[in-house]
Amino acid sequence: MAVPDKGVHGPLAGVRVVELAGIGPGPFAAMLLADLGADVVRVDRPGGGSLAVNPEYDITNRNKRSVIIDLKAADGADRVLDLVERADVLIEGYRPGVAERLGVGPADCHARNPRLVYGRMTGWGQEGPLAQRAGHDIAYIAITGTLGMIGAPDEPPTVPANLVGDYAGGSLYLVVGILAALNHARVHGTGQVVDAAIVDGTAHLTSMIHGMLAAGGWQDRRGANLLDGGCPFYGNYETADGGYMAVGALEQQFYDEFTALLGLTDEAPPRKDIARWAELREAVAARFKARTRDEWTAVFEGSDACVAPVLSLREAPGHPHLAARGTFVDHGGITQPAPAPRFSATPTDIRRGPAEPGADTADVARDWDVPALAPTDAPTKEAD
Question: Is 313 exposed, middle or buried (0-12, 13-18, 19+ CB in 10 A)?
Answer without folding.
Answer: exposed
